[in-house]
Amino acid sequence: MKGFSKVRTGIKNPKIALVYGYGTFRNRIFGGNDGTYVLDEDWDNLIILDACRYDLFEDVNDLPGELSSVRSRGSHTGEFMEQNFGGGSFQDVVYVSANPHPAEVNAEFHAVKQVWENGWDEELHTVPPEPVVEATLEMASEYPNKRLITHFLQPHYPFIGEEGRRFHEEYGYTSLDQPDNIWLRMRRGEIDRERVWDVYRENLTVVLPYVAELLEKLEGKTVVTSDHGNAFGEWGIYGHPGSAYIDPLVTVPWLIANSKNRKSVETGETTDRMSLEEDVSDRLEQLGYT
């Protein structure tokens, strides 16, 4: 159904057809998008901001460090995870995730912490930053000699800032497969693009102080990046569908923070997988994935 929807949309908008045509070509010929394999880069701690496009981060960021952009290997969290971790065993990596999507990837890590299982806020329809920071510091203390990945959900929809909450009071929460989701309504002109951009921007300002706390407390070299961006009508694309390899979706920040003492990373023997619980589909739906 999703594939048919893309074809139908592409017929109406040739630009969209070009985007998905290129994505299909990349996937069939090269096995996915080109871009950075995050595990090949030099870091001790990798902080992932979900759905954070580079130009927004560049505008809002007040974190210390050297900022550049890199190309993500996915325009969607599932693609990012599969391209970077799918089928692998990473015994020197601990993964802390607020996003349920990583639970769907076939990969092994030294240890995992699925914050969305106990840190989900039913009122906000997401995992706020606080339990992510708490879980990250716990795992950093328990595994001081492992590379650490922390995956926040913000600035990804839903919007949890003051203006964002007012936005949801007016427009509600809707999954992406529904005809009244915010991205399709924005395409149809029913929701003002600037208003959505403002609450999306606010969502980034909400999470950055928590990232700053981690930069202050974590030992080792820390990098801040994103799994993918978010489109606001460029090439006719809204949101962050898979296989849409346009700059707003795959150009993401790469902030190298001022490093403290480097970790002495050791490979362990214990491996752990993220597990799929019964409520993962419900959580993904609330985030707008299904």
TrEMBL record:
Name of the protein described by the UniProt record: Sulfatase
Check the record and name the InterPro entries matching this protein: Alkaline_phosphatase_core_sf (IPR017850)
Which Gene3D superfamilies does the record cross-reference, listed alphabetically? Alkaline Phosphatase, subunit A
Native species: Halopenitus persicus
